Amino acid sequence: MKHVASVAGRELRSLFVSPVAYGVLSLFAVLAGMFFIIDMSWFEQVLFQAQQYPDQLGQFNLNDGLLREFYGSMSVVLLFLIPGITMGVYAAEKTNGTEELLLTSPLTIWDIVLGKFAAGAIFITMLVGIVGLFASVLFLYGDPEVGKTTSGLIGLLLTGWTYVAIGGLASAITRSQIVAFLITLVILVTLLLLPGIAEFGLAGSASGVAETLRYLSVQLHFDPLLRGLVDTADLAYFVVIIGSFLVMTKAAVESVRWR
Amino acid sequence: MIQAKGLSKRYGDLVAVENIDFSIAKGEVVGFLGPNGAGKTTTMRMLTGFLPPTDGTAVIAGHDIFGDPIAARRAIGYLPESPPLYPEMAVGSFLAYVARIKDVPRAKRRAAVDRALERTALTEVKRQVIGTLSRGFRQRVGLAQAIVHNPPVLILDEPTAGLDPLQIREIRALIAELTAPSQGDTQHTVILSTHILAEVDAICRRVILINRGRKAVDAPLSELTRGGRTLDEIFTEHTAHDAADPAALPSKPIGDAESRSAP
Q: For a Cys-Cys bond, which of A228, B68, B168, B239 suits A148, CB 3.0-4.6 Å?
């Protein structure tokens, strides 16, 4: 496992010598700014209307009224950006022929899988850092709760890391970056829609199935973190999902040797 | 230095390589010959640990490829058929990365990269991005990544493909230098596959000819060409599909043989 950093370092270096990383960072920053302004003006309107009922004004705060919406929007932005970031992570190794270099070097498969995941996770952390920058602006003009602000960011981070693990698997099972992109997008959108499917599609059917589907959705575990509720069960969900996708990715990378 | 013991690779019913044995001593330069699809690349991939053999094993520099795969891989420099390159990286940083994953200690990495650049005459393109290099340069970067960690064993799959005659001569000189007895402890052992029989004549001292997954010939070059026979004749004799009447087959140059990519 001593080469995790070697693999991660190369991965990040490749990301940042091409315009892709800068493009994604700028796009993400622009979208974050946009959503921040939209959510802020919406919150302002709500507050304005609430002036008529001064006794209820206490219900409104920056965390629940603004940041929760903002974080939620950014998680959807991540959902659409991450397939593009991860699509080449293994597929490009195959088309470059560098898969042969990696697998004939004194590396373990875990070095490769964890190194690549770490690189993706670091990049996502930078993106979430941008979100954190916007959120921190609120501290200059208001007094959001530090705990809730942070737990939401952690939720966003874990959601992004989960998407990276899923995208990695998709890239490992195909040679084509486009196919990897589409597979990732389909899985992520399905995960996003799971609560809806459980509620409407399976209404009336055995409640166990609907409940399980709902439980599998990222949203269900992201939401408590947005509300400032840090539950070990939710954290465990992210760890288990990321872990199982990494194990599957390892098997997919190794499968070259089984053929 | 390299021992193949009953190496076999089967894909279902398809036999790619069947029961290949050989032993190569330190400092030897062995030419791996055979028509396209004969199993050369598959055999090389098994030696390098990219593909596990279905049967048999190999020992590289004293390390069994199953018993101690990491140590076996560390002892090998491998240039695959298509050089493994990251097009977006600069030559120097790519080689530094390869040196790192091949376990070259941090303190020695810069020197290792510089030496590999120098040996493959790439020093002036050190900062250039690989994707902008010509085919010949890329092939040399491929060779540089194979030798950067100074491995005792070099496995080269068509090392001179895509090079011009001058570059071919340089590569041959480099291989000769790497395998010279004067190298002492760092004397390399080389297996190279090629389609160019003249190349075997020029640098190899021994020939292993593979046909349809089996070893057909394994002998020193001097012995094979004794009595004035040319490699071309030997090759035709052993790879002809109708062994009874090899003369009946058109003896077309091997390079033109229909290409069949290895699985």
A: A228
- Taking the C-alpha atoms of B90, B93, B98 and B104 in order, what is their torsion angle to the nearest 10 degrees? 160
SS3 letters across A21-76: HHHHHHHHHHHHHHHHHHHHHHHHHHHHHHCCCHHHHHHCCHHHHHHHHHHHHHHH
Q: φ, ψ for residue B32 (rounded to 5)? A: -100, 110
Question: Regarding predicted confidence, which is higher, B254 or A55?
Answer: A55
Higher pLDDT, A223 or B252: A223
Give B243's pLDDT tier (boundaries 50, 70, 90): very low
Q: Which of A34, A32, A65 is nearest to A47 (CA)?
A: A65
B84–chain A Cβ distance below 8 A for any pair: yes
- pLDDT for the residue numbered B202: 83
Give the model's pLDDT for residue A205: 63
- What is the nearest CA distance from B62 to chain A, expressed in angstroms? 16
Mutate to test the interface with A, among B86, B155, B157, B261 (most CBs of A within 10 A): B86
Q: Does A214 touch chain B (CB under 8 A)?
A: no
Q: What was the ipTM of the complex prediction? A: 0.87
Average pLDDT over residues B57-63: 94
Residues on chain A touching B103 (C-beta within 8 angstroms): 106
B20 strand-pairing partners = B7
Phi, psi of B80 (to 5 degrees): -70, 175
A14 touches chain B (CB under 8 A): yes
pLDDT tens track for A112-134? 999 999 999 999 999 999 999 99
Longest dimension (CA), chain B: 61
B-facing residues of A in 56-85 (CB < 8 A) are none
Element (H, E) at A11: helix A4-17
Question: What share of chain B has pLDDT > 70, as a percent?
Answer: 91
Among B160, B128, B141, smallest CA distance to B83 is for: B141
Query: Which chain A residues contact residue B152 at CB under 8 A?
Result: none
Within 8 A by CB and 6+ apart from A18, the residues are B88
Give the least confident one: B66-70, B81-85, B135-139, B195-199. Answer: B195-199
